[in-house]
Automatic annotation (TrEMBL):
It comes from the Bacteria. Residues 30-238 form the Nudix hydrolase domain. This is NUDIX domain-containing protein. InterPro entries: NUDIX_hydrolase-like_dom_sf, NUDIX_hydrolase_dom, NUDT19.
Length: 272
């Protein structure tokens, strides 16, 4: 096995670092999760949809994040009508089995709809432009009253996996009390749809250029976790949303180690 490639990424203290109480005990087992980076073309370049999480939440409270969350066991339901790359394609990119790849992609679509109102679904040959008829279903998904498979079946909708692209794979540092094994997806905002902040998990939401979001973090106006900060740094290099979608990506598992040094956190990233 090749040795991991290590490099260092420095961020100010306060950028989403937590430490578990039982530092000498075994680390928490990471939970599978999916995150979706929504992009669009703005007047001055690529814009990213970001949400400011409610303070006091068990994980990433007060942080600025992309939409996403943990996998629900029902996300693995194979009855979901599906268009686009099959689970086996996603499994090959994300280094997991087909069942988990299906669950992750379903979680990505579900969480994006719950947290931003953007629904990556439609028919086999058309993408939804109006999601207003599904407001009640959105609320039911958020409370887990219905599953994604049940909602899509009742609405006669097809999950559009072709609207997503794989972007990254991050695992929460062992030092943190809550850990997630998260696959990052990227998707362009579908024509006709709007992203909003109508979720109980966010105090505010909006679109912003990557460089502006990073500047806000550097100047103390927002807090970014290392994966968000580094992802925004990558996205700042692109001129259009299509450029982001078409960017070649080699997905490797990034396992950070956090080291406090004075007023900065030294984040050592191991790419495996």
């Amino acid at each position: 096995m090749e040795q991991p490639t290590e490099f260092v990424f420095d961020i100010p203290v306060g950028a989403g670092v937590a430490t578990r109480a039982n530092a000498d005990g075994p680390p928490a087992t990471p939970k599978d999760a999916a995150t979706v980076i929504l992009v669009r073309d703005g007047a001055d370049g690529v814009e990213i949809f970001l949400q400011h999480r409610v303070k006091g939440m068990p994980f990433a409270g007060g942080m600025t994040v992309f939409p996403g969350g943990g996998v629900d066991k029902r996300d693995a339901d194979a009855s979901v009508a599906w268009a686009g790359p099959e689970p086996s394609w996603w499994a090959a990119r994300f280094g997991c089995d087909d069942a988990l790849a299906r669950a992750l992609t379903c979680a990505a679509v579900r969480e994006t709809f719950e947290e931003s109102g953007v629904l990556l679904a439609g028919s086999a040959d058309a993408v939804l432009t109006d999601v207003t008829p599904y407001a009640t279903a959105r609320a039911a998904l958020e409370t887990r009253a219905v599953s994604l498979a049940g909602f899509l079946a009742d609405a006669g909708l097809t999950l559009r996996a072709d609207l997503l692209r794989p972007w990254a794979h991050w695992i929460t540092p062992e030092q943190e009390p809550r850990r997630y094994d998260t696959r990052f997806y990227v998707a362009k905002l579908p024509d006709g749809q709007e992203a909003d902040g109508a979720t109980s998990e966010a105090s505010s939401s909006g679109w912003q250029r990557p460089d502006d979001a990073i500047a806000d973090a550097r100047e103390g106006r927002r807090m970014l976790m290392p994966p968000t900060w580094l992802t925004l740094s990558e996205l700042a290099k692109f001129e259009t949303a299509e450029d982001v979608l078409n960017a070649p990506r080699e997905i490797v598992r990034i396992a950070p180690t956090l080291i406090r040094e004075d007023d900065h956190v030294r984040v050592v990233l191991e790419k495996r």
